[in-house]
TrEMBL record:
Keyword line: ATP-binding, Ligase, Nucleotide-binding, One-carbon metabolism
Pfam families documented for this protein: FTHFS
Swiss-Prot/TrEMBL GO biological process terms: carboxylic acid biosynthetic process; tetrahydrofolate interconversion
Annotated metabolic or biological route of this protein: One-carbon metabolism; tetrahydrofolate interconversion
GO cellular component: cytoplasm
Protein name in the entry: formate--tetrahydrofolate ligase
Domain of life: Eukaryota
Similarity comment text for this entry: In the N-terminal section; belongs to the tetrahydrofolate dehydrogenase/cyclohydrolase family. In the C-terminal section; belongs to the formate--tetrahydrofolate ligase family.
Lineage: Eukaryota, Metazoa, Chordata, Craniata, Vertebrata
Subunit text: Homodimer.
GO molecular function: ATP binding; formate-tetrahydrofolate ligase activity; methenyltetrahydrofolate cyclohydrolase activity; methylenetetrahydrofolate dehydrogenase (NADP+) activity
EC number, UniProt record: 6.3.4.3
Length: 697
């Protein structure tokens, strides 16, 4: 019968296999008949196979056809917002096509940004990785020294000027510093991610998803404590395993809990009274709940709060607090997971507190881990954006480096390394100074991802070096720098011989070559610039270059890009600072002495008790994530340069089991920042007529 065309997919290949036979009158002997229909079918099948093979080959890797955007830098340099608005960005689907993404791998969020699906990793699994470059920095002033700006300027130079495939991988900025002191994190001047308003504000909602997931766990904890305190075992069981149409049935997550309890039963009616009690009672100790609520705002008055004061909570009052959203363990999990399944498993393993009998209670025990994965299913996909010169950027995850591990996601890096190809470059950034963000990049992120860096770019500024050389305190944006910062070679030299030298040495302990990038300001003199580069090379840097990307875009960082390319061609002898099986206390001491320069550590009784408990629970092999001030190599923010002769106080130790690290709290470090007297929000406004934002930087 004839097949209606509506039965077939568009562009389907039709192979008609009817046994048509033709007579060959010229054949020797009597007439012969040949099944030409089958021969035609065979040829068509062969053609289909060849066509599909060519199509599959094309899917494996698509060479880049990047069309950079032209920059016309102005003097004086306008505000970041003005520069961002003056450039017309490419539609994100055009950018995706230029870098070899398939249409089905893209989920657009408007014209300027899109999520990239993780299926890309399967398509390019056999593609060799590109070179892996980490941008770190010296100990910064409160204003930041421009690591994001250097990262963007470097990839603009690599792609737009040296014609090498390159990708920037940046963290999503938190609303806390955006409206607090530091401002946004899109870069600055003519080295920015655009549109900077979208980058610095809600982006694609990942931080909101983390906030919702984190606070769902917090709500589940307190609700469970309330219900266990006010109901019998029998009543709890009836509500946790309700009868539907006369039948009780465990959910999959409840069966998982039964297995962990050693109960190999699936019929709710078969449980004994003791098994029912064990199943329904988490028995959380309110004094040992470690999970806190989060909000993405610097709000010091939420550091310690009391909850449960309403009469409806029946006396379940306890003290707790808020962290800033980017300090949530869920943010760390997002940044360290290498697949959706891995993220789901990590979410399930999160320990939220301890029972009265001393057993850890997890998110899976609460029955909430599946719901968390649902809330996070889109957040796990990196967001594609572009620089001012039209080169690609992945924006994904945003943990702080002082109170978390401070790096963008493993998945963004892995996707980018496949996309750039063997000869390309992926440039990612670690938060704050190399002693914090870089150390955690190496010991935590690289340990989790299996990736190994080829080069470290260490960012310095003359301003910060003068501070470390003995200059007065640097406060905030919008104020003039003190007079000694205008022209003082001895302060520059002092900062180079102390903090810059120490940070170079820290990087060298990991066996990775260091290129120093001096982020040039208009107030810097040539003598100061030359002195920094000279001392940096004397201190062991592979090279040291001044960078003018802020004023010139990628063209101002071509020399840096060439130095990075040359350094990446050298063999890297990467090594971890410590073995994972080293005792927790010794891992902390190793970081304190070899990275910070401390004589020793001082563990509080509470910290030692926690460490003993974590060893007992089998967490001793986890890496260390120090929560420490970013304003000094020590625990004392006012101690600049490279302090020595101090003992590092460890007041508490916590475990992020799902994320996969132990984090000691150093000194008075807080996981919720506060607002200054005059925050950035004083300058941020909206024009109702044009809907244009002003004051962001």
């Amino acid at each position: 019968m004839d097949i209606p065309s509506t039965w077939l997919r568009p562009r389907a290949e039709i192979i008609y296999c009817a046994p048509t036979q033709e007579t060959d009158d010229d054949a020797i002997g009597s007439s012969s008949k040949f099944p030409l229909g089958y021969l035609i079918a065979a040829h068509r099948t062969q053609n289909v196979v060849r066509s599909c093979s060519r199509w599959l080959q094309d899917q494996h890797y698509r060479p880049w056809r990047l069309h950079p955007l032209k920059l016309q830098p102005l003097t004086p340099v306008p505000s970041d917002l003005e520069i961002s608005r003056a450039q017309v960005a490419k539609p994100v689907d055009q950018l995706a096509t230029e870098i070899g993404l398939l249409p089905e791998e893209l989920e657009s969020y408007g014209r300027n940004k899109a999520k990239v699906r993780l299926s890309l990793l399967d398509r390019l699994h056999s593609q060799p990785d590109g070179k892996y470059v980490l941008v770190a920095g010296i100990t910064p002033t409160p204003l930041g020294e421009g690591k994001s700006t250097v990262t963007v300027g470097l990839v603009q130079a690599l792609s737009a000027h040296l014609k090498l495939n390159s990708f920037a991988c940046l963290r999503q900025p938190s609303q806390g510093p955006t409206f607090g002191v530091k401002g946004g994190a899109a870069g600055g001047g003519y080295a920015q991610v655009i549109p900077m308003e979208e980058f610095n504000l809600h982006l694609t909602g990942d931080i909101h998803a983390i906030t919702a997931a984190n606070n769902l766990v917090a709500a589940a904890i307190d609700a469970r404590i309330l219900h266990e305190a006010t109901q019998s075992d029998k009543a709890l069981f009836k509500r946790l395993v309700p009868s539907v149409n006369g039948v009780r049935k465990f959910s999959p997550i409840q069966i998982s809990r039964l297995r962990r309890l050693g109960i190999n039963k699936t019929d709710p009616e078969s449980l004994t009274s003791q098994e029912i009690s064990n199943f329904v009672r988490l028995d959380l100790d309110p004094k040992k709940i470690t999970w806190q609520r989060v909000v993405d705002t610097n709000d010091r008055f939420l550091r310690k709060i009391t909850i449960g004061q309403a009469s409806t909570e029946k006396g379940q009052i306890r003290e707790t607090g808020f962290d800033i959203a980017v300090a949530s363990e869920i943010m760390a999990i997002l940044a360290l997971a290498d697949s959706l399944e891995d993220m789901k498993n990590r979410l399930a393993r999160m320990v939220v507190g301890t029972s009265h009998s001393g057993l850890p209670v997890t998110a899976e025990d609460l029955g909430v881990s599946g719901a968390l994965a649902v809330l996070m299913k889109d957040a796990i996909k990196p967001t594609l954006m572009q620089t001012l010169e039209g080169t690609p950027v992945f924006v994904h995850a945003g943990p702080f480096a002082n109170i978390a591990h401070g790096n963008s996601s493993v998945l963004a890096d892995k996707l980018a390394l496949k996309l750039v190809g063997r000869d390309g470059f992926v440039v990612t950034e670690a938060g704050f100074g190399a002693d914090i963000g870089m150390e955690k990049f190496f010991n935590i992120k690289c340990r989790a991802s299996g990736l190994r860096p080829n080069v470290v770019v260490l960012v310095a500024t003359v301003r910060a070096l003068k501070m470390h050389g003995g200059g007065p305190h640097v406060s905030r944006h919008g104020t003039d720098l003190p007079a000694p910062y205008l022209n003082s070679l001895h302060l520059v030299a002092g900062g180079c011989q102390s903090n810059l030298k120490k940070q170079i040495q820290i990087a060298q302990q990991f066996g990775v070559p260091v290129v120093v990038a001096l982020n040039v300001f208009k107030t810097d003199t040539q003598a100061e610039i030359d002195l920094v580069c000279q001392i940096a090379r004397e201190c062991g840097a592979f090279d040291a270059l001044p960078c003018n990307h802020w004023a010139q875009g990628g063209r101002g960082s071509v020399a840096l890009a060439q130095a990075v390319k040359q350094a990446a061609s050298k063999p890297s002898n990467f090594q971890f600072l410590y073995h994972s099986e080293m005792p927790i206390v010794e891992k902390i001491r190793t970081i304190a002495q070899r990275v910070y320069g401390a004589d020793d550590i001082d563990l509080s009784l509470e910290a030692q008790t926690k460490i003993d408990y974590y060893n007992q629970q089998g967490y001793g092999s986890l890496p260390i994530c120090m929560a420490k001030t970013h304003l000094s190599l020590s625990h004392m923010p006012d101690k600049k340069g490279a302090p020595t002769g101090f003992v590092l106080p460890i007041r508490d130790v916590r475990a992020s089991v799902g994320a996969g690290f132990i984090y000691p709290l150093v000194g008075t470090m807080s996981t919720m920042p506060g607002l200054p007297t005059r925050p950035c929000f004083y300058d941020i406004d909206l024009d109702p007529a044009t809907e244009e934002i002003t004051g962001l930087f």
